[in-house]
UniProtKB/TrEMBL annotation, chain B:
This is Energy-coupling factor transporter transmembrane protein EcfT. GO terms for cellular component: plasma membrane. The keyword Transmembrane applies. It comes from Rummeliibacillus stabekisii. The chain crosses the membrane at residues 26-57, 63-88, 109-132, 244-263. It is a multi-pass membrane protein. Transmembrane (T) component of an energy-coupling factor (ECF) ABC-transporter complex. Unlike classic ABC transporters this ECF transporter provides the energy necessary to transport a number of different substrates. It comes from the Bacteria. The lineage of its organism: Bacteria, Bacillati, Bacillota, Bacilli, Bacillales. It is found in: Cell membrane.
């Protein structure tokens, strides 16, 4: 087996574990914020370090860990699938901005690199927000009948997802600014 | 701080349910999630409830653990229950007080939905309480094997999942240590202005990530020198064995499905 591929697989596995730990830690870090967590940071990092596919797999694993040991709330098959597997996996799409990020990093253009990171993280975070909102609607459609819950789901999920997206963007940007080498798998 | 976090929910034991093969349990739970939706009247929901109580008794799990797992979704349950009670306007009026009117159909639907909630949460909780995460992963790998034909890397995913599970306790300790070390240097994560707290997160993550990269590289090298070449022809340390009891468990869910379909039609 290709050594680089094996290393990538193991890094993804370990960073999925870090994501899980950071997610559980969020409560003590931000007592007033509920579940505003850093769970997206390792996913975005893997997406920028190894590419979109690696980010997607990291997200998938974190979703799986939530279901296995994190006490996930799977109340209907569809809601569980969207809330855990789809929502976390989608964050990996932050990697679509990897090309721009790497080019800027190589030329030492910190500002441009941060723009790329911000856009990528925003895309990933927004998809996660959309997924949780959709899961909420699916759940209530199945359990609450005909009530109009679109706004409720958008507002409720936004209440923690929007701060989480902003937090993730800031943390990832600071991270890449202070240690740009983490974008490069070779060292 | 980390002591408060409960990692996983598996409680080792020696009950009938504990001893079942993870594959049998996964098939069982997956089928259960689907047959729950067959239920549509009092008889079917009663049958589901009795079936779930039997499973709980067979697993010999203390009720305390089940109730504990239920706590976070209790609000959601109450919310949907009252939504049905107050907004369904069919059937006879049971209770009327000022602007509150409760209809028979609303109460019925509310109870049905709550029972559906309860049995779903109880059965999935019994699975995670009686099966170690690593055996769930092993079971999943075998069950998803047919998907390899679609070029899906099932073996690789299962391997990564096992590595993640293995490293979670280690990483929790490490995060705890780094947090304490940074606190000793005067960094404050839990109070102060939000800007300062966000800044304090970075010195926590950098050492955590750097040591994770080192760990990953060590593990990759260790696996490579031991000749790891991917899934084909690899033997297992943890063998799964299918017993008669596993067949019984799978058959019981099929029978339950048939009973539900019968009760749905003829009662």
């Amino acid at each position: 087996m290709n050594k680089k591929r094996l290393l990538m697989m193991i890094e993804i596995a370990i960073f999925a574990a870090i994501g899980f730990v950071l997610d559980k830690l969020s409560f003590s870090l931000w007592p007033q914020g509920g579940s505003i967590s850093l769970v997206m940071v390792p996913i975005v990092l893997m997406a920028f370090r190894w590419g979109t596919m690696a980010g997607l797999v990291t997200g998938l694993l974190i979703g799986g860990l939530q279901v296995l040991i994190g006490g996930a709330y799977v109340l209907t098959p569809l809601q569980g699938f969207i809330d855990y597997f789809f929502a976390f996996t989608a964050v990996g799409l932050a990697g679509v901005m990897r090309g721009m990020m790497i080019a800027a990093n190589r030329r030492g253009q910190t500002g441009k690199m941060i723009v790329a990171i911000t856009i990528g993280t925003f895309i990933g975070g927004l998809l996660k927000y959309a997924a949780h909102t959709l899961a909420g609607i699916v759940f209530f459609a199945e359990y609450a009948g005909k009530q109009n819950v679109y706004w409720y789901s958008i507002v409720y999920n936004g209440s923690y997802m929007i701060p989480a997206i902003i937090l993730t963007i800031i943390v990832v940007a600071l991270l890449f600014k202070s240690a740009p080498r983490i974008a490069n798998p070779k060292n | 701080m980390m002591d408060k976090l409960i990692f996983g929910r598996f409680i080792p034991g020696d009950s009938f349910v504990h001893r079942l093969d993870p594959r049998a349990k996964l098939i069982f739970v997956f089928a259960f999630i689907f047959i729950v939706f067959i239920a549509n009247n009092t008889a079917t929901y009663a049958a589901l409830l009795i079936f779930t109580i039997l499973i709980i008794l067979l697993s010999r799990i203390k009720l305390y653990f089940l109730i504990n797992g239920l706590k976070p979704i209790l609000i959601l349950m109450a919310f949907t229950f009252f939504l049905h009670i107050f907004f369904t306007k069919e059937g006879d009026i049971l209770y009327h007080w000022k602007f509150i009117t409760i209809y028979e159909e609303g109460l019925r639907q509310g109870i049905f939905i709550s029972v559906r909630f309860l049995v779903l949460v109880f059965v999935t909780t019994v699975l995670t309480l009686t099966t170690s995460p690593i055996s769930i992963t092993d079971g999943m790998e075998v069950l998803l094997n047919p998907l390899k034909k679609l070029k899906l890397p099932i073996h690789e995913l299962a391997l990564m999942m096992s590595i993640s599970l293995r490293f979670i306790p280690t990483l929790m300790d490490e995060t705890d240590k780094i947090m304490k070390a940074q606190t000793a240097r005067g960094s404050d994560l839990t109070s102060g202005p939000i800007k300062e707290r966000i800044k304090a997160v970075v010195p926590l993550l950098v050492p955590l990530f750097v040591s994770a990269f080192k760990r990953a590289e060590d593990l990759a090298t260790a696996m490579e020198v031991r000749g790891y070449r991917g899934g084909e022809g690899r033997t297992r340390y943890r063998q799964l064995k299918w017993h008669v009891r596993d067949t019984i468990a799978v058959l019981s869910i099929v029978v339950m499905g048939a009973v539900l379909i019968y009760l749905r039609k003829y009662s």
